[in-house]
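Course assignment 3, question 2. Fill in each field.
Student: A.L.
Task: Predict the tertiary structure for the chain below.
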Amino acid sequence: MIYKKLIAFSEKGKEVGSISAAVDKGVAYFKIIGRIWSWSAEDGSKLRTQIDEALKSGAKNAVIEGSSEGGSVFATNDLLALFQQFDEVKIKVHALMASAFTYLTSHFHTTIKSNTQGMIHMPMIGARGNIKEIKSSLKLGENITKDYKKAYAKKTSKTEAEIEALWKDGDYWMDAQELLAEGFVDAIEGEVESFTEFDVDSLAACGAPIVPEVSAKTKNKSKLIMDREELIAYLGLDADATDEQIAEAKSKMKIDALKYREDSKEKKPKSKGKKETEDEDETEVSAEVKELVAKGLKDKKYTAKEVSAYEKLATADFEAAKTAIDALTPKPKLSKELNQENGEDGEGAKAKWTFDDYLDNDPEALEKILAEDPERYKAMEAARK
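Answer field:
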């Protein structure tokens, strides 16, 4: 079964959650991974279209699986309304069931794993603006809180007062056994076999008491595997490409990449003065060269602008570069030379020193200025920038 990613939730350029879907043998399947954020009109249209098509094809039941730290109460309400169009919905939770995601699970039959963690808390809202706007936001928060209490009470057969008692001190965490005993889920089935980066990030983001390590089988995966449409587009194939054509294109890409790599190795000139290995990138500056050139810079034998030139020299002929750098004498500060030309020395010369002059020649004096004359220190530091 191939899932199609419909919505990707991002924060600061990083994907923090997603919703994918598929239809198989008359059942609609959905995956909710990570954070649930508000989506754009275009994303919402994709999800609604997918559900409409599933219903038209005769899919009366839906299965939702995944792991989520929750997120937007409004986006979760939208999901609930969309999923309630199916006659029966079952949710299968993996690593995490927290915050707004628990509102969704409280409306459907829900199973978890034996190492699932769950968390409920009083819904949170943001308030800003004038007094009237803040009062309006407060009323909204009260309405949402009542809605969550009712949903939890109905799912667990508890009273709303009992729900309040659970979250009165903030986040209320439960392991799988307590989630089942308290009535927040309907059954425990197996255990989470592999924790993904999304699982670990989500657990850490919402303050879970136990945060597992990324499972070995998923540890080296920096991003989700492409869905079929993305893969077809990446390989430059037609939209109706068969599995055999996809496999052939992927194989050809690997062969082309290998040929390119071998051709590049043959064309690259051999470097001198450093140990060569079969897989070494010949253009890379070795640690030995970097250490040599860095020491020369630290000893003030040349400026930062000249580092690249000395690295190239040392890469081409290490011993010759070492001899040349050892023979260099430290470059004096221009301000120091000017002071000497003007016959100034000692404190008279220091009066014209820059921040870097103090840092290089008398850092203790710089610390003294910071303690006794912080305004001067700030001015010198600002001039440096």
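Instructor remarks: Residues 228-267 form one domain. The beta strands are 4-11, 14-24, 27-36, 61-71, 88-98, 109-112, 117-120, 172-175, 187-188.
Grade: pending
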